[in-house]
Sequence to fold (277 residues):
Amino acid sequence: MRTGRTARTGQYVALLAYLVFLAFPFLWLISTAFKPPRELGSLHPTWIPRDPTLANFRQAFDEQPLLHAALNSLIAALGAALVAVLLATPMAYVMARHRTRLARAATGWVIVSQAFPLVLVIIPLFLVLKNLRLINSMPGLIMVYVVWALPFALWMLVGYVRAVPPELEEAAAVDGAGRLRTLVSVTAPLLAPGIVATAMFAFVTAWNEFFFALVLLKTPEKQTLPVILTHFIGAEGVAELGPLAAAAFLATLPSLVVFALIQRRITGGMLTGAVKN
Fold:
């Protein structure tokens, strides 16, 4: 009994330490965003700003086109999420329901492809987009984001499809429903939480992506928010800490909101009430 309590206490302590480790950068970012210049240069920094100010936010918006860059990021992220889900959903259903050697090989390839570094794929993608005349264009960037997010989105949806009992589809077939009616009326509603979670994952991945946008987008009018954030760093590597922290804080908020929504959708339970009487 005492050993079990000690182990549980150790787990809680480790979890708390991990949460503190994850939260520290974000909390320090918020603190820096509201600090005036004299506090940013202080030799004795504090967690809570002594004289909080919004000047860093005003300076960030005055120096860089944050709203336009955020709109570009939003278009790219929404486009990538929509296309990735539309492609991954039918593919995942086939791979989950027809467990052939080809399906197992495809699943293995999906997992292996996640180990490829960005530098390895950027040159082939650049050449393909150049031949398609999609360099420095939003459709080209969305295409790259879809290619990058599709393997993991497919892997996620395969797990959701396998969690749907095949007996539900068989029962619908016994009642006279065709394959299309079964997919639309029985399977699709049960997959809705998984589809939403996958779309949000693809959205967050595209929203936070930096490397592809930096290489593929040339004109400032088309650059996304992560690329614009680098403009707060001077040629000699000296960063404007206050405006940079303010802009980074605003850029982080959509990701936090989306992750909160993902958690609510997943914990809601995918198969609640999926019982045929």
Observations:
- Residues 2-33 form the longest helix (32 residues).
- The two ends are 44 Å apart (CA to CA).
- Residues 268-277 have pLDDT under 50 and may be disordered.
